[in-house]
Write a structure and sequence with these properties.
Elements lengths: L2 H18 L5 H8 L3 H25 L5 H21 L3 H28 L6 H30 L1 H22 L12 H5 L5 H21 L2 H8 L7 H22 L4 H22 L3 H29 L4 H28 L6 H26 L37
Helix pairs in contact: 1-5, 1-6, 1-7, 2-3, 3-5, 3-14, 4-5, 4-7, 5-14, 6-7, 6-11, 6-13, 9-12, 9-13, 9-14, 9-15, 11-13, 12-13, 12-15, 13-14, 14-15
């Protein structure tokens, strides 16, 4: 695995921290901005909307630009967005800063994903994705709980300042360690890449990814108030439970990334099934603090266990368009990250309680399983037109010095990616 894949995976740490840290900051933000928790939750959706719009737009806009320069520009813009959020005097400006940060984050994911995939062999794609998603997982282990800790003691704005500082460190790492990556000999053609959207397997991959991500984040986005108001935990426990979710995410990414290349559909379908079962269990047992804490770890594991497979699947069915494949995966994860918190806020506003977000999330993941089974059926009937040799559109692993590459979205989703 090229060293630069790990370098950009570390850069994703700051992106992922910003994307998910609001799950531990909603109560203080809501209080400071004089809005409801459900409305504060829309700030999570704002970031996801920016990712959905930014991934394809920036992928197209930067298709023929030097990738290293693009990554440097986008991480710089992201850092400025964090500073704007820390200084925002109103909810509207905070919302806008989240959108700007998300646009930059989406572009970084899309370009970094194409670089990482181009630098490894076909049978290492899921592992390359796991490295990038590992940065997202690390954000959940360290960044998100640290954000909640800072929010609790120094105010939520301190968390934004910290992410801004982390993005500056990421910028320095890219400048120092990621070399210039030559553009392919054949210039990327937008119309040719757009042809991937004729393939129904691409759209099935989009639907599976969006619903799997959305189902989990329908509940995760409101985990902080669920823990304090339903499970009865003190607010001081929230950072630790978020860290536990992150530990599960890191473990899931590691395991899923190692076996997804050989068992892609198995990882994808069994992982989403596990998430569905765990969300139902959370809905039923949310009032029991021990159960809520334990399930947070398991949901983190199952969610990120599937992420490398979801990323690799998109590159397999859209191999002729590596840049748009990465952008499409990012957009798909964040369609889910937009719809999930919105649906969760809707059931909360309807008076159904915070535990109802887990029921709504389980409905989304069950739908994803149905789409996954359909994709498996089609895949067995007609093998996908994969490996239209991505390497032809990007440098080979030896085309650049040691450090090069980046992981794929996730949306996470990614995100590691969203």
């Amino acid at each position: 695995m090229p060293v630069a894949v790990h370098v950009l995976g570390l850069a994703v740490f700051s992106l992922g921290t910003s994307e998910f840290m609001l799950s531990g900051l909603l109560p203080p933000i809501a209080e400071d901005m004089h809005v409801s928790i459900a409305r504060a939750g829309l700030l999570i959706s704002a970031f996801a909307i920016g990712m959905v719009l930014g991934a394809p737009l920036l992928a197209v806009a930067t298709l023929r630009l030097p990738r290293r320069t693009t990554l440097i520009s986008l991480i710089s813009l992201f850092g400025l967005g964090q500073v704007a959020g820390a200084l925002a005097p109103s909810y509207a400006l905070l919302f806008a800063s989240r959108m700007v940060s998300a646009l930059a984050c989406a572009g970084f994911w899309a370009v970094g994903a194409a670089v990482a995939i181009a630098m490894v062999e076909r049978d290492q794609r899921a592992r390359a994705m796991a490295v990038m998603i590992g940065g997202l997982s690390l954000a959940n282990v360290l960044g998100v709980p640290a954000g909640a800790f800072l929010g609790e003691r120094l105010g939520w704005r301190a968390a934004f300042w910290s992410v801004g500082a982390a993005s500056a460190v990421a910028l320095a790492g890219i400048l120092a360690l990621v070399p210039r990556i030559p553009l392919p000999a054949e210039r990327p053609a937008l119309l040719r890449e757009l042809r991937i959207y004729r393939d129904r397997q691409v759209w099935l991959a989009v639907g599976i990814t969006a619903l799997a991500a959305g189902g989990v984040f329908c509940a995760f986005s409101y985990l902080s108030p669920l823990l304090t108001e339903v499970a009865g935990l003190d607010a001081g426990w929230v950072p630790w439970v978020l860290a536990l979710f992150g530990v599960g995410a890191l473990a899931g990414t590691t395991v899923g990334g190692r076996i997804a290349d050989a068992h892609l559909f198995g990882v994808m379908l069994w992982g989403i099934t596990a998430s569905s079962v765990l969300l139902v269990a959370l809905a039923l047992l949310a009032s029991a603090a021990v159960a809520a804490v334990g399930l947070s770890f398991l949901i983190g594991f199952s969610t990120f266990f599937t992420a490398p497979a979801l990323n690799a699947r998109m590159f397999n069915v859209a191999g002729a368009a590596p840049t748009l494949a990465g952008a499409t995966t990012t957009a798909a994860f964040n369609v889910g990250n937009t719809g999930g918190p919105w649906l969760g806020g809707t059931v909360i506003d309807a008076g159904l309680g915070f535990e109802a977000t887990a029921w709504a999330g389980a409905a989304m993941t069950l739908t994803a399983i149905g789409l996954g089974l359909r994709a498996l059926h089609l895949d067995r009937r007609t093998p996908p037109p994969t490996s239209r040799v991505i390497a032809s559109s990007a440098p080979t692993p030896t085309a650049a010095p040691t450090p090069t590459g980046a992981p794929a979205p996730t949306g996470a989703p990614a995100p590691a990616a969203p």
